[in-house]
Amino acid sequence: MVTVGVHVSIAKSIDLAVDRAKEIGCDTFQIFSRSPRGWSFKDLTEEQVKAFRAKMKASGIAVPVDHMPYLPNLASPEGEHYSRSVDTLKAELARSGQLGIPYLVTHLGHHKDEGKEAGLSGVIGAITEAFSSVKNDVMLLLETTAGEKNSVGGTFEDIRHILDGAGERERLGVCFDTCHTFVAGYELRTPEGIGATLDHFDEIIGLSRMKVIHLNDAKGEFGSHWDRHEHIGMGSIGEEGFRHLLRNPVFSRLPLICETPVDERRDDVGTVRTVRELAGSE
Q1: Which of 102, 146, 202, 232 has fewest C-beta within 10 Å?
Q2: Can you name the residues that pair with 143 across neighbouring β-strands?
Q3: Is 81 a catalytic residue?
């Protein structure tokens, strides 16, 4: 059996995310703990925290995941945007801890023509400062990226560099995004390609660092660096590729979060069902 879910809304009240996840049939789910499109937010109230934790305890859902908002850029040059990004990271680590969410996923960002080394240094500095400020059990997961222009995190070596530099490595892990990793140039369509990619990941980072999978097909071709998600089995990785992925023991043991479209072709319920079918669970 795989542990699969989707990103769900927190509209009206954050505890309603648990209800929505149950209605969809999720074993796991992901949220933004606040609006992802702005800098400002309201602190969580004691009532909100109690309601979320109570519903999670009663739900039977295995693992909730929090995701950083869209605006922060941990690799940006020093300045107001970088400072606000670091402050947001601190706030999200604290909010995840309040809610009892074990994992916070973060994009690594773009260096704005300052060079990859500067971008990586920025990410390391942001994580180091956030960890020194917020002390809890939340693990920060570095998300693999598509390797688009000026980005960091498009290679396993980038992520290893951050892991080595940030300190408190026990608080760091990796969120492996199948779309991003595939368009960054790591093969995921065949058993041989999956095996080679996982061997390389293990050599550079270590498979024990992989904690959550963002399970997304890709609109872009292999190695295109085009970050656009597609329905599972309808993109360039394809149905057969996901059948191989989902029957690989490394992927099948981890929480699988789908961040795929909801449209006339498939909704979230259909996405969860498709993943289970391809995994041989239904």
Answers
A1: 202
A2: 175
A3: no
User: Measured between alpha carbons, how far is 111 from 167 in angstroms, rounded to an integer?
Assistant: 21
**Pairwise CA distance, residues 274 & 72, whole Å:** 33
For the cut 70, the answer to whether the pLDDT of residue 282 exceeds it is no
95-139 tens-digit pLDDT: 999 999 999 999 999 998 889 999 999 999 999 999 999 999 999
| Catalytic residue selected from 70, 164, 221, 253 | 70
Burial of residue 128 (CB within 10 Å: 0-12, 13-18, 19+) is middle
Q: Are 118 and 157 in contact (CB under 8 A)?
A: no
What is the C-alpha to C-alpha distance for residues 41 and 118, in angstroms, rounded to an integer?
29
Q: Does residue 167 contact residue 128 with C-beta atoms inside 8 Å?
A: yes
First-to-last alpha carbon distance for the chain, in angstroms, is 9
Looking at 7, 34, 95, 107, which residue is catalytic?
Answer: 107
Buried b (16+ CB within 10 A) or exposed e, 43-64: ebeeebbebbbebbeeeebebb
Residue type, 114: E
Domains of the chain, earliest start first: 3-279 (3.20.20.150)
The pLDDT tens digits of the residues spanning 210-256 come to: 999 999 999 999 999 999 999 999 999 999 999 999 999 999 999 99
pLDDT confidence of residue 112:
86
